Amino acid sequence: MRYDPPLLARALLRIALPGDLRAAITGDLEEGFRRIAQTPLELAAARRWYWNQTLRSLNPTLRLAAHWPTLRRSPRRIRIVPGDVMKDLLNDVRYGWRTFRKSPGFTLVVVMTLAIGIGANTAIFSVVDGILLRPLPYPEPGQLVNVWSDYTSRDGPLREWMGYPNFHDLKAEPNLFADISLYLDWGPTLTGHGEPQSVFGAQITPGMFSNVLGVEPALGRSFSPDEGVPGAQLVVLLSHRFWTTVLAQDPAVVGNTLVFDDEPHTVVGVMPADFHPPFLALADAWRPLQQSMAQHQGGRASALFRAVGRLDSGASLEIARARTDALGERLEREYPESNTGVGYALFPLRDDVVAQARSGLWVLLAAVGFVLLIACVNVANLLLARGTARGGELAIRSALGAGRRRIVRQLMTESGLLALAGGGMGVALALWGTDLLVSLAPAGTPRIDEVTVDSRILTFAGAVTLAAGYLFGVVPALKSSRPDRHATLKEGGRGADSGARKRGIRSALVVTQVALALVLLVGAGLLIRSFQQLNAVDLGFEPENLLTATISLPAVRYPDRDARYIFFTELEERLRAVPGVEHVGSTNSLPLGGNNGDTDFRIDGEPEPEPGQQIVWVRRATPGYLEAAGISVLRGRTITRNDDAQAPPVVIINETLANRYFQNRDPIGTRISLGTVWREIVGVAKDVKNFGVQRESRNALYLPYAQAPTGFLSLVLRTSVEPNSLMPVVRREIAAADPNLALAQLSTMNAVVRASLATEQFLTRLLSLFAGIALLLAAVGLYGVVSYSVTRRMREMGVRVALGAGGAAIGKLVVRGSLALVGIGAAMGIAGAYGLTRLMKGLLFGVSATDPLTFAGVTVVLATVAIAASLFPAMRAARVDPVSVLNSE
Predict the structure, then answer these.
(1) Any bridge partners for residue 270, and if so which?
(2) How far apart, in whole angstroms, are the C-alpha atoms of residue 515 and residue 832?
(3) Contacts of residue 267, Cβ cutoff 8 Å, sequence gap at least 6
(4) SS3 content of the chain, % helix, strand, coil (to 5)
C-alpha cells in the first residue's frame, strides 16, 4: 500500500497529540509555511517538503506510531525482542552515518579532536605500561631484589655499593636467597675485528643469568661456577646485538676466541635477542667476575660492587629485610673499623630500575588525561550547539510520539560513532606517537626497549574510547532529548535556542575547559622555570670549547704505574702540539660523570673520627687538568709537573671540604691522611658538579696523577676553535700513540651537559606540548561559545545599536562576557593547580610548586588568549546592522 507522506504525517500527528496541542502546533506550522511561501504553489511545495523531511528522519518512530491503534487496544504490554532492538540500533547507526555525511566539517573537527586526546593518552600509556606497570620479563619477577649497602647511619646514601666480603657473608646466609650475584662495569677494547672498538660490558658472578634472572643463552651455555674463580680461563657471553652487528651472526661463534684488552676470551654463548638485563641494559658482553675471599678487590670498606638477588621461595621481602638488618648489626660488631654504620638495604628490582622515571611518567599520564577531558568538553559543546540546530527535528520526533529514552539512545549512538571514529584514528596516531616517544627518549631510559603497542594497549584505547563517548555525549543527549516542541515548531522547524539553561551548560563547559587548561599550563610553566634554573646553575667548570676523550689502558700492555704514566704524559704532549688546542689535562672522573670513589680521611692534629664519619671523594688529575676544564683554584696552587712520584705527597681539596672542616683557618699547609699516607694541602679548588646538576657538591679532592696513576683516564682539551673540528685529529693522535686503543667516549663537554639534563628537557617539552594543545582546545571552545552567543543575541545587539549604543560598547560587552567565563575558570584552575602541583615537587629544581610568578604569568597568558578568541565575534557584533536584524524578525 502506497502512503501519501503529508497525509500520513498529519494522521500520525492526530494520533500522537492531544487536540489542543495538535491544533496549536498545526496552526503554528501553517503560519510558518505562509511566511516563507509567496504563491499557493510554493505553499503546497513547502508543506510537502516539510512533511517528507519529517518522515525521512522518523522511520523508527513511524513504525511504532502506525501500529498505535492496535497496540492501544491490546491489553498486553509491548514486548521488546532482541531482534527489534538490533534493528533499531542498526537504523540509528545508519541514520547517524547519513547525518555525519551531511555535515563533514563538523564530523572532521569532532573526530580529529577526539583522535588527539585518545591518541596522546594511548601513546603515553604504552610508555607507562612498558616501563612502570609490566612485570620484569623473568620467571617470578616479584622475587628479584636489588641489594645495597645502607650508609645512612654514617650520613651517607641509602643505596651504596658494597665490598666483596660483605657480599660473601650475605650470600652465606641460609634460606634467604635462592641465589645472589654481583656485577661491575667493564669497558674493554675489542681488537682483531677491523678497527679497535670500545665495548660496553659488565663482569658478573656466575649464576647471575641462569639462577638469579632465570634466562639461558640462545646459543651455547652460561657461565659455570669454576669460571668465577681467580685464575680461571677467560670466557665471554655476547649480546644478540653484538653477535649480529660485529660478528654477522656467525653460527659457529660458540667456541671461537675474541680478544678483549689484549686477552683472549672464549665465547661460550649468545643471549636471546629480547634479553635486556635490568642493570647496564646497553651491555654487549659479559665475563665472569673472578673474586674470592682469599683474593678480593679492596676490603669491607671498599664499595666496588652492586648486587642482584632472588629471594628464597619461603622468604618475603619483609622477612629478608629483617634478616639482613640482623646480619648488618652482627657484622658491625665483628668489624667495627669498616662496618660501623653500614647495613643492608633491599628493594624490589623493578622499583629500583624505574625509580628515576616514575614521577615524570605519572605526571605525563595525568597531563594527557587532562587533554582528553578538555577534548571531551569541547566536543560536548559542539554537540550542544548541534542539538540546538537540530531542535526542529527532535521536536517533531517528540511530537510524533518518540519518548525521551528513544531520542537519548539515538543521540548516544551518534556519540558512540564519533567516539569510535576518533578512537580508530587515535590508535593510528598512538602507533606513530609511541615510536616517536621511544626514539626521543633520553639515552639510558629504563626498560624503554619493552615499550610496545599490543593487546593491553589496544584494550586501554578501547576503554578510553568508550569512556570518552559517554563523557562527551551524555550531557548533550539528555539536554537535547527534552525539546520545547511548541517554541520549536512555532519557528517552523528551524531550531530555537532553549534559553538560559543550555547557555548556562555551554558556559559551564567552557569554564571547565579553562580550569583544566590552566592546571596544565601551570605544570608546564613550573617545569620550564625549573629547567631554566638548571641551565643557570654554576657547574664549577666551563663547558664551552671543551673536548673530552676517554681511554682505558689494557693491563697486559700497561702492567705497572710507570708505563701508564709515561703513556698519558707523552699523549698529552702530542695533543698540546695540535693547532687550536690551548690546554690539555686528564682526570679519572669527568664532571657530571657520576663516578664515585670515596675513602675515609683524617685531618692532622684533630681526633681520629669514627669509621665512615669523614669521607671524601677522590679524583686523580694530571698537570693542566684544572686549567683545561676551567676549574678555578681559589687558594694556594694547582697541580704541577713537580708533583711527581718522588715529590712529597700533596693534595688539592674542594671548596665544600674546606668550608666544612677549615672554617676558621687556612687549610693550605695542613696535612690530611688517606689511609696510611699523609698529604699536604697545597690548594683549594672550586666545587664541581659531578653527580648531576641538581646534586649538592660533596667533600672532594684531587691527587696528582703521577703519585697515584691508573689505567683509565679522560682527556680534556680546551680549544680556541670549534671542538668538533678537532675530533679527527684527536683520533689520529691517539692511534699514533697506540694503534690498538679505542676511545670509549669522544664528545664535547656541552654534549655531556645536555645529556645530563636530557630527562628534564624531555619531560618539559612533552608537558609543554600537552599544555599548548589544552590551551588551543580551550581557546577554540571559548570562541565557539562566544560566537554562538553573539549569533543568538544578534537581535539584542541590534536593539542596543538602535537605541544609541556604539560599536565599541557592543564589542566590550562581548569581551567582558568572555573574560567573565575565563575569570571563573582561572579561579577554579588556580585552586586545583595549587593542590596538584605539589605532587611535582620531586621534579622541580630551584622553584616552588606554588611559585607565584608562574601562576601569575599563566593567568595573563590565558586572559590574552581569551581576548584573542573573543575578538572576532566581538567585531562581528560591533558591526551589526539594526535595520537588517529587526527586519529579519
Answers:
(1) 219, 238
(2) 8
(3) 220, 235, 236, 237, 238, 253, 254, 255, 256, 257, 258
(4) 55, 15, 30
Instruction: Please report where in the chains the cell 709515561 appears, as a residue.
Output: 566
**What kind and span of H or E run contains 548?**
strand 546-552
Residue 599 has pLDDT above 50, yes or no: yes
- Distance, CA of 458 to CA of 464 (rounded, Å): 10
Write out the H or E segment, with its range, that includes residue 265.
strand 263-270
| Residues forming beta bridges with residue 583, ordered by sequence position | 718
| 621: β partners | 587, 704
Residue 630 has pLDDT above 90, yes or no: yes
pLDDT tens string 75-107: 444 444 455 566 666 777 777 777 777 778 778
The string of DSSP letters for 866-885 reads HHHHHHHHHHHHHT--HHHH
Lookup result for grid cell 593547580: 833
Q: Give the whole-angstrom CA distance, residue 307 versus residue 169.
A: 13
Highest mean pLDDT among 334-348, 501-515, 622-636: 622-636
Q: Are 487 and 496 in contact (CB under 8 A)?
A: yes
Beta pairing partners, 184:
203
Question: Within a 13 Å sphere around the CA of 859, how many CA atoms are in the beta-carbon half?
Answer: 17
Model confidence over 461-472: pLDDT tens digits? Answer: 989 988 888 887
- The beta strand positions in 271-402, using DSSP E, are 285-288, 306-311, 343-348
Would you state the pLDDT for residue 380?
82
pLDDT at 254 over 50: yes
What count of other Cβ atoms lies within 10 Å of the Cβ of residue 329?
12
Question: How far apart are the C-alpha atoms of 683 and 655, rounded to whole Å?
Answer: 10
> What element of type H or E holds 198?
strand 197-198
Q: 584: part of which helix (H) or strand (E)?
A: strand 581-587
Whether the CB-CB separation of 690 and 563 falls below 8 Å is answered with: no
Closest CA to 476 of 578, 556, 368, 390: 390
Amino acid at position 508, single letter? A
Dist CA 92 CA 106 (whole Å): 19
Longest dimension (CA), the chain: 121
Spatial separation of the C-alpha atoms in residues 549 and 64, rounded to whole Å: 83
CA distance 717 to 703: 20
145, β-bridge pairs: 309, 348
H helices present in 706-806, as ranges: 727-737, 749-756, 758-792, 794-802
What is the per-residue burial (b if ≥16 Cβ within 10 Å, else e) of 771-798? bebbbebbbbbbbbbbbbbbeebbeebb
- At a CB cut-off of 8 Å and minimum separation 6, what does 11 contact? none
Residue 551's SS3 state is: strand
∠ at Cα 176 (173, 182), nearest 5°? 75
Cα distance between residue 563 and residue 771, in whole Å: 58
Using CA atoms, how far apart are residues 354 and 474, in angstroms rounded to an integer?
39
Determine the pLDDT at residue 16.
47
All cell numbers assigned to 533:
634554573
| pLDDT confidence band for 775 (50 / 70 / 90) | confident
Q: pTM of the predicted model, to two decimals?
A: 0.79
**Residue whose C-alpha is closest to residue 849's, from 862, 860, 835:** 835
Q: Which residues pair with 288 in a beta bridge?
A: 204
Tell me which residue of 870, 873, 851, 850 sits closest to 862, measured CA to CA: 870
Average pLDDT, whole number, for the chain? 82
Q: How far apart are CA 339 and CA 329, in angstroms?
A: 9
CA distance to 65, 143, 161, per residue, from 319 (Å): 73, 12, 22
For residues 47 and 6, the answer to whether their CB atoms sit within 8 Å is: yes
All three cell numbers of 742:
679505542
Q: Report how far residue 587's alpha carbon sits from residue 577's, in angstroms, rounded to the nearest whole number.
A: 20
Question: C-alpha cell of 689?
Answer: 658538579
> Is the per-residue pLDDT at 241 higher than 90?
yes
Radius of gyration of the chain (CA): 38
pLDDT tens-digit series, residues 717-737: 999 999 999 999 999 999 999
